[in-house]
Amino acid sequence: MSQDRSFSFEFFPTKTEAGHEKLLNVARQLASYNPAFFSCTYGAGGSTRDGTINTVMQLQNDVKVPSAPHLSCVGDSKADLRALLTQYKDAGIKRIVALRGDLPSGMGVASGELRYASDLVSFIREETGSHFHIEVAAYPEMHPQARNFDDDVKNFVHKAQAGADSAITQYFFNADSYFHFLERVQKKGVTLPIVPGIMPITNYSKLARFSDACGAEIPRWIRKQLEAYGDDVQSIQAFGEQVITEMCERLLDGGAPGLHFYTLNQADPSLAIWNNLKLPR
Ligand code: FAD
């Protein structure tokens, strides 16, 4: 397995002190695997601003893994974004995941001066030059609000042209969708690394709800098997681990430039896949 691939882990900021302590323990465990970086999500409209800042700073300074805040532009003014960028730059943060974001329900209609992630990428470049390595999101199965697949590919290309360095995909359970997307964007001249986002399967009902919302398809054969397990959590996890490990093998054998694990703040599901794949540590 190539050492220059990028393996990374994503967290979300927690609401409680106890949750935060647990997150840091999980991060310390994952840090011993030597990931390329950690990232931490951001609630669009600034709903987790302090939580994201604190988490990223602690991951980088205390757990000592280079860490990337996610930053989204819906609901944030340019002044808010500029202040965050300055804070991150001054704190030695070198990587940012730049997104449009989705406003949580109840936060009203999207405001903000930047409309799309490509606008945010341009803004970050205008404000901070080449300081940050900018990651953007990619959707092998199409973003749920896109008019059609071609349009979504074009919009992804705009993000690359605006100055993104690499991309992380929405999770998916069908390796072909990733290779198809790659082929389509490469035909348009985009060569930046597109790292598959990997969602371990641990809980069927939550996964089904979340997948509906973000437009990730759970193939029928996986859905039916997970449904058949009912409340048998152990069987769900064992099956999920096998399915995801096999998909990751296909992705890496096919040349994927790394894997980005959506940990949901848990170590074991991602590490089981990491160990099955015998990834470098
Ligand atoms: P964009 O790239 O702006 O695309 C959004 C939609 O607009 C797409 O349908 C696209 O086709 C369309 N579009 C883009 N440009 C144009 C244009 N010029 N004209 C017309 N249409 C256009 N959400 C959070 O709130 N916080 C997070 O921390 C977070 N982290 C994420 C991490 C990853 C790796 C991924 C894959 C997603 C993450 N999300 C997060 C979810 C993301 O914010 C949503 O999917 C959001 O709906 C789209 O964000 P985007 O950056 O992909 O938007």
3D architecture notes:
- The protein has 10 helices and 9 strands.
- The model has no long low-confidence stretch (mean pLDDT 95).
- The relative contact order is 0.14.
- Strands 7-6-5-4-3-2-1-9-8 form a 9-stranded parallel sheet.
- It is an alpha/beta fold and 281 residues long.
- Strand 2, helix 2 and strand 3 (67-72) form a beta-alpha-beta unit.
- It has helices at 17-31, 49-61, 78-90, 117-128, 149-162, 175-187, 204-214, 220-229, 233-253, 268-276; strands at 6-11, 37-40, 67-72, 95-99, 133-138, 166-169, 194-195, 197-198, 258-262.
- Flavin-adenine dinucleotide binds next to strand 3, strand 4, helix 4 and helix 5.
Strand composition percent: 5-15%
Instruction: Tell me the distance between the termini.
Output: 11 Å
Oligomer: single chain
Helix content: 40-55%
Largest sheet: 9 strands, parallel
Strand tally is 9
Note the total helix count: 10
Structural class: alpha/beta
Mean pLDDT, nearest integer?
Answer: 95
